[in-house]
Amino acid sequence: MERVRRCLSSDKCWPLCGECEEPILHAIRDCNAARSTWLQILPAHKTGSFFNYNLLDWLELNLQNVAGTNGGSRNWNHLFGILLWRIWKNRCKFIFTGVSWSSEATLKAAQAWARPIFTRTSNLPNNTNQKSRNPGWIPPCAGTFKPNTDGAFNPSSKAAGGGGLIRNNNGEWIVGYSRNIGHCSGLQAELWALLDGLHLA
């Protein structure tokens, strides 16, 4: 539906699964292409709950490292976010180029992106302060890009905003964005900023 509204296609239905009314949760989790990718990483006992949450709860629980973890790793929230972005990116690639990725290739790419984060966090002592946990920006692999997003809100008024930027492996600014989100929680502001970044990427 959204592709037709934006004049990207005359066909309302998504060609990989035939779904015509496609909400965002279907696109990133419930579509066969997305679902098969998530099933590659989820332990069997987690699949039931993982696919039953609504969009906001699903994002919140996984980004807080509570639901759907692959064996309880404290790095699940990182892998979840990267894999989510990779699934969305693959859908866009298929729409514009006709190239589709297998679930195995999608997961392998996401794990490669997540590996530097896992390595850095696994070497940190539990009592490391906030300053040393964030030593600086870590560039992505050569020939790739890295998004950084952030959201903020005023606890009193609930007014929120978000933004971000995308840089290449040399740290060069490619594109940036920001906007007034309205009234929401801090976590929702972070999620909106992330979603805006995914649309931009």
UniProtKB/TrEMBL annotation:
Q: Which CDD domains match?
A: RNase_H_like (cd06222)
Q: Which residues form the RNase H type-1 domain?
A: 148-201
Q: What is this protein called?
A: RNase H type-1 domain-containing protein
Which Pfam families does the UniProt entry name for this protein? RVT_3
- Which InterPro entries does this one have? RNase_H-like (IPR053151), RNase_H-like_dom_plant (IPR044730), RNaseH-like_sf (IPR012337), RNaseH_domain (IPR002156), RNaseH_sf (IPR036397)
Which Gene Ontology molecular-function terms are recorded?
nucleic acid binding; RNA-DNA hybrid ribonuclease activity
Check the record and name the Gene3D superfamilies matching this protein: Ribonuclease H-like superfamily/Ribonuclease H
Provide the species name.
Answer: Hibiscus syriacus (Rose of Sharon)
